[in-house]
Amino acid sequence: MNPTLSELGPAFAALTARSETALERALPPAHHGPGRLQQAMRYAALGNGKRLRPLLTYATGMLLQAPLSRLDAPAVAAELIHAYSLIHDDLPAMDDDDLRRGRPTCHVAFGEATAILAGDALQALAFDHLAHDTALDVDATTRLCMLRTLATACGAEGMAGGQALDLAATGGDLDLPALEHLHALKTGALIRACVRMGALAAAADTTTLAALDDYAAAFGLAFQIRDDLLDVEGATATLGKTAGKDSRQGKPTFPTLLGMDGAQRRLHEVTALALQAWRLSAPRPICCAIWRITPRRARAETRMAATTAGSGHAAIAQLMNRIVSG
């Protein structure tokens, strides 16, 4: 189960609430049009998620001085894409999961046909919202860059390609570069898109965009390694999804390839890469906050950075600490 908002700190609570409100407004009413389809869309998108992806968009944009109103549309679009991908990933033909965010998956609750349509509709809505939201006061070129960024993250060079590699690898063996490439597409592509869209909303220059992409790539990999570790160590009730399912299905994971200790070491390594990339482009507090992915190792440094930074940066550091710590 996810922690309650009262436990997360003011920055996390405020931005999570903002993302929930923006997401609610973007979705069609439950009984508008073909009601069962709309209900399935809302069920999948408004479930008990951590909103990591919109929060990454908000955090990046805010630290680069973008107004919040300019970040709502890309944040919502990213979460809609994430919701669509979870619906499709959970289908019997894919990962065949029946539990997501602590409740039945969309196809279990609404049937496979409606779930497929809901995923398709959420994907379409993401692009429609990003293309037409009037609060996104950027020029046409920047909006087009955001749309292309999100499209690339969804397609054969992103999530769809990663899922194809994941299905092909089930029951087989992958070396570390192949496994990391798989997850750079399946998990990391959308995380990179979230960070990039936040930076685009702030009119970041090409040097900053490149450094942020390196940061986001390492962040996405660290997030996936940590997720793999939790799949081994966690309980279904805590995770909100079926624990241990990847290993039972013969899917390649970092713990099965490297062992638990090796996966922890790799987690530390990619976290250091994220830190190095962020130092090139962003204030120190959020750079230090990424260390909270790893257990205990650098929490003192993170707390010190948050204390010595301005209040806005300290709040975002706290926010990022809580996001990546689950």
UniProtKB/TrEMBL annotation:
Coiled coil: none annotated. Pfam families: polyprenyl_synt. One of its GO terms (biological process) is isoprenoid biosynthetic process. The lineage of its organism: unclassified sequences, metagenomes, ecological metagenomes. Gene3D superfamilies: Farnesyl Diphosphate Synthase. This is Polyprenyl synthetase. GO terms for cellular component: cytoplasm. Keywords: Isoprene biosynthesis, Magnesium, Metal-binding, Transferase. PANTHER family: FARNESYL DIPHOSPHATE SYNTHASE (PTHR43281). It is an enzyme of class 2 (transferase). Its cofactor is Mg(2+). GO terms for molecular function: metal ion binding; prenyltransferase activity. Belongs to the FPP/GGPP synthase family. Its EC number is 2.5.1.-.
